[in-house]
Design brief:
Rossmann fold; alpha/beta; seven-stranded parallel sheet; 26% helix; 10 helices
């Protein structure tokens, strides 16, 4: 019988954070504040971070854990799980090497770095999935990929809503985001195409890129409903910036890409039945006719629209209070999908774990009515 973490919330797990970028820092702060998690290691890429205290890297008090660039030291530790938040979209081969080494060393992995791994079908090549599964078998370990989207907002959230359905005609999962405060240059400029000419053919405009990122999530929704996809289609369109925009990822000149709407489309019985859509803007007055939240918002919203019997239109918004910024709140939600899953992934059978085949992963030890402990944001 697989251990159920909810039955023994006092059990502690030794955790390593692999990379200390935007999500990694938040993971360190949360792990330091959780009664069931012990931070035992931090891997860093840059020489300037090597040897620093993990607390300093996370901008909190000292934690007595020294960061290292030595992968062998991390792999030789007694950690139960690695929270892997290093970049993968622009270095997939290196990330795959890391995953296999970590798994073979007997460490479980929760990661926010590879969206196409949220489900073991639909995105990644069978050879890559087999390689991961074989490494996990050798190390008696598991790997789980997740995030706010894909990983929850447009897929698992949709699956949960269908538990109230009699008949379903179509499902649309929408991420609606203002990316003007996101400083990831590669993702913003090259992958999504912001600031490029409107005839840009790189990034998500290249055939197969959208499917690689989101095909697994669409497939997960379909298979949760007992359906098989005929195919996965892609569509993408740009809208021009109405004026010169100064964003965290660089200047966007008027007339260049200021908004993007792309769709990963699951076809069932010849119909476009399940779609995951990104409607991402760089200012609030670009592409005014494109989808928005129910209240007309264009930032920090994940919305699921189900046509059927009954019909649903449900959404959630991160960082909704007036004094909050949806960007760090969204990053925190992404990281917590991984951190909160640690007990369940450690209890899982070896292999690739997905959200359909483990229970819900509530945040054990997170309830703080008195608002004590270490603030994360």
């Amino acid at each position: 019988m697989i251990h159920n973490p909810v039955d023994s919330p006092e059990r502690r797990y030794k955790v390593v954070v692999w990379a200390t970028g935007r999500v990694g820092k938040l993971a360190i702060r949360t792990i330091a504040d959780r009664p069931n998690l012990d931070l035992v290691g931090v891997w860093v890429h840059s020489e300037s971070k090597d040897g620093q205290d993990a607390g300093a890297l996370a901008e909190i008090d000292s934690l007595g854990v020294t960061s290292t660039r030595d992968k062998d030291a991390i792999l030789g530790s007694d950690a139960d799980c690695v929270v892997y938040t290093g970049p993968a979209t622009n270095r997939p081969r290196e990330a795959m090497e890391d995953f296999c080494r970590i798994l073979e060393a007997g460490k479980n992995i929760v990661t926010t770095s590879l969206p196409g791994l949220v489900y073991p079908r639909g995105s990644m090549r069978e050879s890559a999935l087999t390689r991961l599964s074989d490494s996990a078998d050798r190390g008696n370990s598991s790997i789980y990929s997740t995030g706010i989207e894909p990983g929850f907002g447009c897929d698992l959230f949709a699956v949960a809503l269908t538990s109230m359905s009699s008949r379903i005609y179509s499902i649309r999962g929408l991420e609606i985001t203002d990316y003007s405060r996101d400083n990831l240059v590669y993702e913003m400029r090259e992958l999504f195409g912001f600031g490029q000419r409107l005839d840009y053919q790189g990034g998500v405009m290249m055939p197969g890129v959208i499917t690689f990122g989101w095909g697994a999530a669409v497939t997960m929704v379909a298979e949760a409903l007992g359906a098989q996809l005929d195919e996965i289609r892609e569509s993408c369109q740009f809208a021009p910036a109405p004026r010169r925009l100064e964003t965290a990822s660089g200047v966007i000149e008027p007339g260049t890409v200021g908004a993007i709407w792309f769709r990963c489309i699951g076809v069932v019985d010849g119909e476009e039945a399940i779609t995951i859509e990104h409607i991402d803007r760089m200012c609030n007055d670009v592409a005014p006719d494109w989808p928005k939240s129910r209240m007309g918002g264009i930032d920090g919203v994940w919305r699921v629209i189900i046509e059927g019997e009954p019909s649903f239109d449900a959404e959630f918004e991160v960082g909704f209070n007036a004094n909050e910024d949806s960007t760090p709140h969204g990053l925190l939600a992404t990281g917590m999908r991984a951190v909160n899953a640690i007990p369940w992934v450690c209890a899982a059978e070896p292999g690739i774990v997905d959200a359909l085949h483990i229970p819900n992963t509530p945040a054990i030890g997170a309830l703080r009515p008195k608002r004590d402990g270490i603030p994360t944001l």
